[in-house]
């Protein structure tokens, strides 16, 4: 009876836009929207490095196409650990981004070498270029990043813990005062280490930096496409609520 009241959504909750210096400049709302529709993806998060300031344009375009967008961010701590943050409210996400901007060192780089950082509107038109390099660590330790995301009303998720810039890869282990914790696992071969739902709430995403990397990475069963209902599904030990799709 429970599942009859739920809807299935095809998801990818870690996607970079053309604002991230490591992403392709074709990661614009129009190009991304076309590819996501081809794949059948209908629920995503835009999670650029150290900024949420392209989310509004993507949200405006993609939601007209029936693709729900969660405002997200991927914060790079001074420990070289990446932490995702998911927000319910776009204004809260942008407020956090403006605060975090002051924690990014005032360093600019040659974008021909290190990648362009492009602001766009919902029609794929260039509106500006971010001069401060978003690919560098902010002046916050990993624990401070997690705490600041929580204070801003976001859900923190340790990004790709099992590869470069992930918590386990960089620091060797997961040490938490409170379980379960939210982690993103990159590789199927490592999933067995984290499948105990009493300890870990496992996410899996594409971490797409170009259109060809996009795909369905989780199928979520929940009532509506809200962050609250998403968290409820991912945190459930009922594996029918969250099906991970490995590439």
Structure description:
This protein is of the alpha/beta class. The protein has a single domain (3-244), classed as Metal-dependent hydrolases (TIM Barrel, Alpha-Beta Barrel). 25% of the residues lie in helices and 23% in strands. The protein has seven helices and eleven strands. The protein has helices at 29-39, 55-64, 90-101, 111-114, 142-151, 167-171, 227-235, and strands spanning 7-15, 43-49, 68-76, 82-86, 118-120, 126-129, 155-158, 181-184, 200-203, 218-222, 242-244. The strands form three sheets. The chain has a seven-stranded mixed β-sheet with strand order 7-4-3-2-1-10-11, with helices on both faces. Strand 1, helix 1 (29-39) and strand 2 form a beta-alpha-beta unit.
**CATH level-3 fold name:** TIM Barrel
Which series of helices and strands comes N to C? Answer: EHEHEEHHEEHEHEEEHE
Radius of gyration: 17 Å
What is the level 1 CATH name?
Alpha Beta
What is the fourth-level CATH superfamily? Metal-dependent hydrolases
Kindly estimate the percentage of residues that lie in beta strands according to DSSP: 15-25%
Helix content bin: 10-25%
CATH architecture: Alpha-Beta Barrel
Average pLDDT score: 96
* Total of domains: 1
- What does the main sheet amount to? 7 strands, mixed
Low-confidence stretches: none
Distance between the termini: 31 Å
Give me the number of helical elements: 7
Secondary structure: number of strands? 11
Described by the principal axes of the CA atoms, the overall outline is globular
Q: How does the helix and strand content classify structurally?
A: alpha/beta
């Amino acid at each position: 009876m429970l599942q009859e009241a739920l809807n299935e959504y095809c998801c990818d909750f870690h996607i970079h836009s053309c604002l991230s210096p490591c992403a392709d400049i074709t990661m614009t709302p129009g190009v991304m929207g076309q590819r996501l529709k081809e794949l059948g993806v209908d629920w995503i998060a835009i999670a650029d490095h150290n900024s949420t300031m392209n989310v509004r344009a993507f949200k405006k375009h993609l939601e007209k196409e029936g693709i729900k967008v969660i405002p997200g961010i991927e914060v790079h701590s001074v420990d070289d650990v990446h932490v995702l943050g998911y927000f319910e409210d776009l204004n809260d996400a942008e407020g956090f981004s403006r605060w975090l901007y002051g924690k990014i060192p005032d360093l600019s780089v040659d974008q021909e070498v290190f990648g362009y950082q492009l602001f766009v509107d919902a029609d794929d038109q260039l509106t500006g270029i971010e001069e401060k390099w978003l690919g560098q660590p902010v002046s916050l330790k990993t624990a401070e990043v997690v705490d600041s995301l929580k204070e801003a009303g976001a859900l923190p998720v340790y990004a790709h813990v099992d590869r470069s810039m992930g918590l386990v890869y960089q620091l060797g282990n997961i040490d938490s005062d409170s379980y379960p914790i939210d982690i993103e696992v990159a590789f199927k071969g490592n999933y067995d280490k984290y499948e105990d739902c009493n300890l870990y709430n496992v996410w899996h995403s594409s971490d797409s930096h170009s259109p060809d990397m996009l795909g369905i990475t989780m199928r979520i069963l929940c009532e509506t496409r809200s962050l609250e209902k998403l968290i409820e599904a991912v945190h459930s030990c009922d594996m029918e609520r969250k099906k991970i799709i490995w590439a």
